[in-house]
Amino acid sequence: MKLVLSAALLALAAPLAAHAQTVPAPIAAALGDAGRPQAEKDRDAARHPGEILAFAGIAPGQKVADFIMGGGYWTRILAPTVGPKGKVYAYQPAEFIQYRAAYADEQKAAVEGRANVAPLRDSLRSFAFPEPLDAIVTVQNWHALHLKAAAPGGGRGIAKKLYDSLKPGGVLLVIDHVANTDPDFAVPQTLHRIDPAAARAEIESAGFKFEGELPLLRNPNDPHTANVFTPEIRGKTDQFIYKFRKPAA
Questions:
Q1: Distance between CA atoms of 218 and 147, rounded to whole angstroms?
Q2: What is the residue range of 91's domain?
């Protein structure tokens, strides 16, 4: 029995080992940055930001967007990672601020004292970045582009805008909660999840090339049928981490 269990555990661990990411020193230092709230640092073990940003190739000197930044967790890591020669655009949609005023306060708190971070809060219909970007990170947001309040064209239109915002060779990193098969994007309205295959196809339609998945946030015990805010599943959902690239030529 012990041999059977050991073999099963090794089989489960193999995919993770195959995708293990060495966390570069600039990202590791950013995780320990004194300006990060301790409550956010306490979440790092479950969220794996070091491995995720390493997978995305985030490095000092880059111009990066935290697209739909939420509470600022990723902005506070990206800022010290790209350093003084880099730039972070912390984008909070006007629609989100209108829905929940605290999003504006959270944006202000994440930007305050960080000279290399610029806040943006135009609407999803009109947002634009001041310069071409090396990378765009968007976490637990793609499903929101298919809510009723989202811009016309939903994720397809946003994917094209993000594609046009990147330099040739630039990276788009997308993380979201997994839904069961849902090619028509009906599930986001009720469960705040998205079908990974449908999201991938939508993003690729803008011209992006899929470069792979990091399985660190996968949870096979999530049946994909509960709203992600349900107490029993919140913080433990099955999530995909997809990396896309704008072709260099």
A1: 24
A2: 22-245
Do the domain assignments include residue 131? Answer: yes
Write the CB contacts of 50 (distance below 8 Å, at least 6 apart in sequence): 21, 23, 27, 28, 31, 44
Predicted confidence (pLDDT) at residue 65 exceeds the cutoff of 60: yes
pLDDT over 60 at 1, yes or no: no
pLDDT digits (tens, 9 = 90+) for 217-234: 999 999 999 999 999 999
- Report angle CA 111, 114, 115 to the nearest 5 degrees: 115
Residues 6+ apart with CB under 8 A from 51: 20, 21, 23, 214, 216
pTM: 0.91
Strand order in the sheet with 117-120: 117-120, 87-91, 63-67, 133-139, 166-177, 239-245, 209-213
Report, as an integer, the average pLDDT of 155-169: 97
Query: What is the residue-wise DSSP string for 179-195?
Result: -SS-TT--THHHHS-B-
* Number of compact structural domains in the chain: 1
Cβ atoms 217, 239 nearer than 8 A? yes
Mean pLDDT score, 196-203:
98
CATH (domain of 233) = 3.40.50.150
Amino acid 225 reads T
Is the residue at 12 inside a domain?
Answer: no
Q: Which residue's structure tokens are 């990170």?
A: 137
Examine residue 191 and state whether it is found in any structural domain, yes or no: yes
Handedness of CA 148, 188, 77, 205 (dihedral sign): negative
Single-letter amino acid code for the residue at 161: K
Q: Does 11 reside within a domain? A: no
Q: What is the pLDDT of residues 31-44, one digit of tens each?
A: 999 999 999 999 99
Please tell me the predicted confidence (pLDDT) of residue 20: 60
